[in-house]
């Protein structure tokens, strides 16, 4: 919301517009020559009336800017007062909170049956809530400080603009005095064009003032909304304080303390079980990833072994075929050798038997000793 308002940017734009209008108004020569003809006298008379109107307009605008600057100063002082009130409230709340903590500590020391862990946790929770509320309120205070600084910048810009307008009005008054000295007031002239220009300038000035008013209204609305937020924060802080008191009162009950401790133990057990399950899940996921990698490696190893087995089987079949062919060739050769050996043996046995046939003896021949022995 504050980004949409952007008072410094709006004031810069309006300042540029006002300066442009003032430059249009100030575009007059400072050296004035005495009129010699009727036309020059009429022109100087027109310039005199126009300068008089512009001077009155400048005075009105200057008065309006002074009023606005005073209003902005009052708003700034109100914001400073609100900031101081907020700081005082924060200090009071801190003191009350410290007193409340001291009371609770005294009650804790006095009450022997109260569970220390439960009380510590309650204190920590309430301190966290209080610190959060305090940070939120500190942020709101910082925002108000920024708003105050922006208001100061606006006031400085308006004062600068008022100074420039004073200079412009002084220049216009000087020009009026010079024109009054040299003008002839008895000549009738036509001022329709000049009046139209003055009406345009009036419209632009009125539009600029309306824009200033809308910007002021937006800033006041934003300030009101922020004050309402501060009130809401104070109410919520009171509610948390009441809740803290009710919790302290209810904590005196032993049954509720036992229930709370039982529930807290169950909650701690559940959180521990959840942590264990999460850790087991993470370890199982890691083991699954490792097992998948091992399985992929094993599958690749099995595929390579299968390829090697196929190659070995193919080589073995080739070797078996070669061995079978060699074995058949060896058998054929062995059979041929056996056949040759059998034929040679049969020839040798016949020749042996033929040599052993008995020859008839004739008279007067000596029988050899070997034949006799054989017989």
TrEMBL record:
Major subcellular location class: cytoplasm
Superkingdom of origin: Eukaryota
Keywords: ATP-binding, Coiled coil, Cytoplasm, Cytoskeleton, Microtubule, Motor protein, Nucleotide-binding
Cellular compartment(s): Cytoplasm, Cytoskeleton
Parts forming coiled coils: 38-211, 253-347
InterPro entries in UniProt: Khc_C (IPR059182)
Protein name as it appears in the record: Uncharacterized protein
